[in-house]
Amino acid sequence: MPLIIGQNAVSFGICVKLNYLCSPFGEDPIGLCKFNPLKTFCTMAEYLMPEKKQEIFAKYGKSNTDTGSAESQVALFTYRIAHLTEHLKTNKKDFGTRRALLKLVGKRRRVLDYLKEKDIERYRNIVKELGLRR
Question: What share of the chain is helix, strand, coil (3-state, %, to 5)?
Fold first, then answer.
């Protein structure tokens, strides 16, 4: 159920503590939204913004647009796994997130297995850089 502001329906994110929807266009009647400097009341995926993805790809891939290499995929999966692990420490009964975490761990394992078969040196480098226990 979107919040009606003027004639426009806004349905971009749900502010948890205030139980209303927020918008990225500054149409926030109370002023406590993800797009406000407080940034503490919204449940949108702020941790995985495009800038952060490009930073990860630039650090572990060949360039900041290298989204397909195994190293950049493993690095992105590792970042997401770390974020979901922290979330599950405080939300122990969030079984949907737990399932998503297990699927991500499986994806990362499969990409690492592929990399291990194709090029053992690249595999060793990425495991060492990310600090994985494989």
Answer: 50, 10, 40
